[in-house]
Amino acid sequence: MANKKDVLERLKETGAILEGHFVLSSGLHSNKYVQCAKLLQHPHHAEWCGEELVELLPDEDFDVVVSPAIGGIVIGQEIARALGVRHVFVEKPEGIPELRRGFRIGEGDVAVVVEDVVTTGLSTKEVMQVITDAGGEVGAACSIVDRGGGKNLGVPFASLIKVDIETWDASACPMCKKGIAFAKPGSRKVTKAGKPEHDKDEEEEEDEK
Question: Which of 6, 61, 99, 104 is the most buried (most CB within 10 A)?
């Protein structure tokens, strides 16, 4: 079974965990950034993560793996492969989580929700709601990286590593006060002040952690 050092080495080797001055999708500033897509772009790492996470799941007869798009798709597929079950993903084309593309969750299906990174747990809970609304049952949830939100899900939760990342509002950021330029590795644009380009509250982005 993988230990924390094994996982951390893979994250660092692939550039998936960085140290510096970053703006997160929430607009908060941080000295660390996790982007599991850089790890999962390598099939052997993705396969390894899936197999290791399956070892941590409860002894349950899962029927389906369900992931949020897009960050959970690759690792969700690997866990489904390891479990020998199908994998579907939840999208938000109009801002509301839903199953599309003909995906279905059957009445009584036991699901495991799979993410790349769990931060607040919001996107995981949205997927859980889609499952229960469809008549399914959430048997467990898991992620490669837990940034603290795993404890808030109300179901058995497993992760390969927990990463504590300190964050600050832009006005209180010590790196901003030192004039250190920030980076925004994710897809959302930010203003020169280091804040999201639009003000409305947004759900947790799966591909920006």
Answer: 99
Counting every residue, how long is the chain? 209
Using an 8 Å Cβ cutoff, are 130 and 146 in contact? no
Q: Give residue limits of the domains in the chain.
A: 4-175
Spatial distance between the Cα atoms of 62 and 111, rounded to a whole number of angstroms: 6
Using one digit for the tens of pLDDT, what is the confidence trace for 68-99? 999 999 999 999 999 999 999 999 998 899 99
Rounded distance, CA 71 to CA 126, Å? 14
CB 91 within 8 A of CB 97: yes
Q: At what angle do helices 43-56 and 4-13 cross, to 10 degrees?
A: 160
> Six-digit token pair at 32?
């660390």
CB of 195 closer than 8 Å to CB of 27: yes
The 8-class DSSP code of residue 185 comes to -
Helices marked H in 134-192: 174-177
Omega of the bond leading into 70 within 30 degrees of 0 (cis): yes
- For 38, counting Cβ atoms within 10 Å of its Cβ (0-12 exposed, 13-18 middle, 19+ buried), the class is middle
What is the CATH class of 4-175?
A: alpha beta
Q: How far apart are CA 199 and CA 75, in angstroms?
A: 31
